[in-house]
Structures are given as C-alpha cells and as structure tokens.
Amino acid sequence: MNEYSGNDSLGTVTAPRTVRIERLLPGPAERIWAYLTESDKRRRWLAKGPIADFVGGDVRLIFHHSELSQEPAPAEYRKYEGHTNHGKVTRYDPPHVLSYTWPDGDNEPSEVTFELDTIGPDTKLTITHTRLANTNSMVSVATGWHTHLAALVSHLQGQQIKDFWADHKRLESEYRQIIGN
Prior knowledge:
By secondary structure, the protein is an alpha+beta fold. The chain has helices at 29-37, 39-42, 75-78, 135-156, 164-179; strands at residues 12-15, 18-25, 58-62, 84-93, 97-104, 107-119, 122-130.
C-alpha cells in the first residue's frame, strides 16, 4: 500500500450542474500536464487526439476503451468505441490550468477544467466539470472521470488498469445515490 492507494474518494457536487473530483498524482505538474495535453500519453487513461495549445483552438478526443481494459465494455458502452468528442480550448495556462468545452448530448456544451497544484514531489489534480445539462449528465460525467482517473493513477504507478468496467458500474450506482436521478 502506498500514499496513492487511498486516492479514490468520490467527487462532489459543488454548484448546480457542476461536479468536482480531486486526485493526488505522483510526480511534478509538468509530468501530469503532459498526460492531459499529449495524445499518446492521454490515450493511456482517457482518449487520444489533438488538443490545441491556445484559447479558441480545437480539441478532439477519440475514445478507445478497449485499449484501456482487458474487460469487454458493457453492451450499453460498446457504441462509444471510437467515439469522438469535439470541443474548443477555453483556457490554456501550462502547467497549471487547462479548460475546454465538452459535448453534452443535444444541449449546449459543458466545460471541463483541469487545475494542477504542486504538493511536495506530487501534484494535486482538480477536475471541475460545469454547465452539465441535468442529473443524468452529472452522474455520467462524475462516473467517467472517476473511472478514468483511477486508470491514470494506475498508469502513473506502472500498474495494470484493473476492473475498469466493474468499477464504472459500481461507481455509477454510488454517484446516482449522491447526485440523484
């Protein structure tokens, strides 16, 4: 057991239509920044694709969950294999803050912000996802970020990603209880 093993607390609702989740990650902010902005590193825990390094630039995230886990995706998520999110960079301040829009179904896009703070040799990552359309979006986003951040922690520690979909299912139920239906 190490200092990152208890690093799995649930995210919180911090305002209407807003969820926030924090994680302590091993290494300096520059290392974590690379895992947010570089396609080859980001694909190991979230999705590949380019993110512009300026406000107003394009974001394209291409999801391949089959590359993250040995477990097959549940039927309801298989349709997202190869799905692409398109957004726009709204804030770019390396290696401290990155924000971009995130599609939210047929609704106006939501926005995700990544904030990095140095804590000794480590980095606190805070993800705040705002302007979510409804409670279903809030549950989906909180569950997704939680599961993907567990994958990032595993990867940064040189470990295999385990139980991605089993954890996702469990977390979805927990987030539905705290956020609502």
